[in-house]
Amino acid sequence: MPGLKLSIVLCTYNGERFLSPQLDSLLSQRRLPDEIVISDDASGDGTVAMLTAFAEQARRRGIDVQLDVRPRNVGYVPNFIESMRAARGDLLFLCDQDDVWHPDKLAVIAERFEMEPSLLLLGSDAKLVDAEGADLQVSLFEALELTPAELQAVHGGRAFDVLLRRSMITGATAALRKELVERLPPVGTGWIHDEWLAAIAAMSGGVDVLEQPLIEYRQHGSNAVGMRKRGWRLKWRDLVRPRRQQFERELHCTESLQAALRALEDPGLAEPLRRLAGKRDHFARRVSLGDLARWRRLPVILREARSGNYGHYGTGVRSMLRDLLRRD
Questions:
Q1: Which of 50, 80, 164, 267 has the greatest number of beta carbons closer than 10 A?
Q2: Beta strands in the chain, from DSSP E residues, in sequence order
Q3: pLDDT by residue (tens digit) across 298-313?
Q4: Is there a contact between 27 and 59 (Cβ–Cβ < 8 Å)?
Q5: What's the pLDDT tens digit per position in 233-271?
Q6: Fold of 6-218
Q7: Domain range summary for the chain, segments of one domain joined by +
């Protein structure tokens, strides 16, 4: 499928501190985009002025630019979803305001989509940098602690297996076919747009990742979603910290995805729905564990372990320890 048209979808909000290097990187691509769709979410700083100047510069390079400035703030999830629907390209590249793209990002990803017509969504690794752009000496996939087995499963068309356990597709690295957006159910309660896109695409096996870093993913105090490498002290705190709120969110997100899939009335979704039902029941039991003394949790934890649920929907032994040691 040669000649795919490429659209960058950039959403901004009070981003003037980090925006300039990102804008420069978009125009430094080895393969320039055909279109850039920009939606500013009612910024109160100098972001809009920067975007207006950038739009003129991009148009002089032969790039179509849609620049929309919202009169009121709607939040980054609706902003991205509406902007993706407005894009006219075959491939949409999600773009945050505070990163820097490597010059070959568009070319490498577009080539992969052109080679694989069944591919719906593709993520990549990223180089983590601090607020000033200094290398944090860890990649996104390393910080997420993705295992070789998980990466192999994703490459083998089983991304849904991995996504049942954890989120691994970061919107800042993601590209997708416009057809995925055209058939996308409304984003479920509690979901972020990139997680929702990945979950829907993965049900048909149409998700993969590139293990090469294609962006510098900036970590700072204002990230909507941030990432960092954890040492042993942080890992211990992670084991014992309260979990009820997190597990209730996971439970509600699973239920909202179930409801969206049922509404599609697609017989081909029977297996994903069955597996989501298993995840929903598992997290309902994990939520209820917080009401028990630690010694009384052990029989439930062992039953869930024997059923394989901690492997199917969590991180195995680590999830078991979290349920045993957590404070709520």
A1: 80
A2: 6-12, 35-40, 64-69, 91-95, 100-101, 121-129, 135-139, 175-177, 207-218
A3: 999 999 999 999 999 9
A4: no
A5: 777 777 888 899 999 999 999 999 999 999 999 999 999
A6: Spore Coat Polysaccharide Biosynthesis Protein SpsA; Chain A (3.90.550)
A7: 6-218, 232-325
Contact 130, 218 (CB under 8 A): yes
- 218 close to 99: Cβ distance less than 8 angstroms: yes
Rounded to the nearest 5°, which phi and psi values hold at 213? -70, 130
pLDDT at 220: 82
Query: What single-letter DSSP state applies at residue 192?
Result: -
Where b means 16+ CB within 10 Å and e means fewer, 289-322 reads bbeeeeeebeeebeebbeeebbebbbeeeebbeb
The pLDDT of 32-59, averaged and rounded, is 98
CA distances (Å), origin 242, targets 1, 135, 239, 291: 49, 32, 9, 12
What number of CA atoms fall less than 13 Å from residue 36's CA on the CB side? 29
Locate 13 and state its tokens. 């909000």
Centre a 10 Å sphere on the Cβ of residue 202 and count the other Cβ atoms it contains: 24
